[in-house]
Design a protein that fits this description.
The protein is mainly α and about 475 residues long. It has a single domain, classed as Amino acid/polyamine transporter I (Up-down Bundle). It contains 21 helices and no strands. The termini are close together.
């Protein structure tokens, strides 16, 4: 790394050269980092927008799909967090992959991470536009265009990334509590009332879990965790990162897995095991709103509409902060332009990387709008899908890298953490990726041709990254040799 870190107590004056500024060390605790990760997953949006489809396809056993996905990612987290104690680079995924699979693979992973995180964020601006439009229509009968909303969202998120990481953590904390709070309110009301036909645990019976539709549920469930691994990106700003980052990772995975399963189960109870599938089939987008109207009141349904918009904003801000730090790290590596290494003298944010990401997002959003594309079925789904696949492939590569890394270095870690868990995670993640790819049409609703192109983006980016690594080795050997070096 080329940026010289400042001591936390020494604040450079604004007249000092930019190279003396660094991200603010020791700013984030375990809960703060977990807020970033869980907010990126957008729990309310995932539940209200996607869980009804999981119930429709997998039946009342759908909650188990979220538990299985969470368990798989918890196994991945064992090796991932163990390696995070030994590899202190801010590059997270690409640094881990570099140490285990070599520099060319690491450079390919870096490019894939950049595409993946950008895809996960930029596509969501389409969702922001449609969610806000639907909320305005539901509450006020107004029909507002999506593009101005998405562009305004770009400016708001850009400002949030420009401010300090402390500011972002506080904003996400408030928004996350609000969106999970409305779901807890719904769940509590259903439990107190006893559901439509009394509370049942039939969702967890093997006969309701081992159904053909569970494969589709698993694909949706794995997608619902996307971005949980970004805990490591905040290593430089974490307090005691060797302890904080692993704790935040496990906390995020455990919370998401248990919370998703619990909420889906309570919504099934709200309509009853015998009726929920038919109700979801008649209008899946209305399932959660109908439930909360019946058990809490219409005012809560109106509030849920508003909180879905804030849930989307929280997800955007979380991904924006992650992307900025990846951009900063890659600029420090010499892969991206040096201008992106600039850190704001007061806010200590990677503000130039943030501006660049905002400009890129605006360009993509405007391009889709100019083409007359639908903000949901095309901007969101076509941009998000390769981003989701990219991050899943990165998880797989990181799992493979863990045992290869520990085979070559002296360490005091046990075989469970360095071999058994990462190998098991690699097998499980391979299956998860296969599930998502084979059910891509259920994510996108697009033609076979479109889905083939979307799926092909990930291997294409990896190949381009490998070619970039080969070029750097020949043309810029100093950059290649220093790639993913310890700070």
């Amino acid at each position: 790394m080329t940026v010289t870190p400042s001591a936390p107590s020494a604040e450079p004056t604004e007249t000092e050269p930019p190279a003396t500024y660094s991200l603010r060390r020791g700013s984030l605790g375990t809960t703060d980092i977990a807020f970033f990760v869980v907010s990126a997953a957008a729990p309310l949006t995932v539940m209200a927008g996607v869980a009804p489809l999981a119930i429709l396809m997998g039946g009342i056993g759908a909650p188990v799909g979220y538990l299985l996905a969470g368990l798989t990612l918890a196994v991945f987290a064992i090796g991932f967090t163990t390696m995070s104690r030994h590899v202190r680079s801010a590059g997270a995924f690409y640094a881990f992959i570099t140490r285990g699979l070599g520099r060319r693979a690491g450079i390919g992973a870096a490019l894939l991470a950049l595409i993946g995180y950008n895809g996960m964020e930029i596509g969501v601006y389409g969702l922001l536009g449609t969610a806000t439009r639907d909320t305005a229509r539901s509450l006020f009968g107004a029909d507002i265009p999506w593009l101005p909303v998405s562009l305004l969202g770009l400016l708001l998120i850009g400002y949030g990334g420009y401010r300090s990481i402390d500011f972002g953590a506080k904003v996400l904390g408030v928004l996350l509590v609000a969106e999970t709070g409305i779901l807890v309110l719904l769940a509590g009301a259903v439990l107190v009332d006893g559901g439509a036909d009394g509370l049942s645990v039939a969702s967890f019976a093997p006969g309701n879990v081992m159904v053909p539709g569970m494969i589709a549920v698993l694909a949706f469930a794995f997608a619902a965790f996307t971005g949980f691994e970004s805990t490591v990106i905040y290593r430089r700003e974490a307090r005691d990162p060797a302890r904080t980052v692993p704790r935040a990772t496990y906390l995020a995975v455990a919370f998401l897995g248990l919370f998703y399963a619990f909420i889906v189960w309570t919504v099934i109870q709200a309509f009853g095991d015998a009726k929920v599938i038919a109700t979801a089939g008649s209008n899946p987008a209305d399932l959660f709103f109908s439930a909360i109207t019946v058990y809490v009141g219409s005012w809560a349904a109106d509030l849920m509409h508003i909180l879905i918009v804030t849930s989307v904003l929280a997800s955007l801000l979380a991904f924006h902060n992650a992307i900025n730090r990846y951009g900063l790290a890659l600029a420090e590596e010499g892969i991206l332009p040096k201008a992106l290494t600039r850190v704001h003298p007061r806010h200590r944010s990677p503000y130039v990387a943030g501006i660049a990401q905002t400009v890129l997002g605006a360009a993509v959003v405007l391009a889709f709008a100019a083409a007359g594309a639908d903000p949901y079925t095309q901007l969101l789904l076509w941009v998000n899908t390769p981003g989701m696949l990219a991050l899943m492939v990165l998880q797989l590569l990181a799992a493979i890298a863990v045992p290869l890394y520990f085979r070559r270095v002296a360490h005091g870690e046990g075989a469970l953490r360095t071999v058994v868990a990462p190998v098991a995670a690699a097998v499980l993640l391979t299956g998860a990726i296969a599930l998502v790819v084979t059910h891509l049409d259920q994510f996108t609703g697009a033609s076979t041709t479109v889905n083939t192109v979307l799926a092909a983006i990930v291997p294409a980016v990896l190949v381009i990254g490998l070619a970039l690594g080969w070029w750097l080795r020949r043309s810029r050997p100093e950059v290649y040799a220093g790639f993913a070096a310890e700070p």
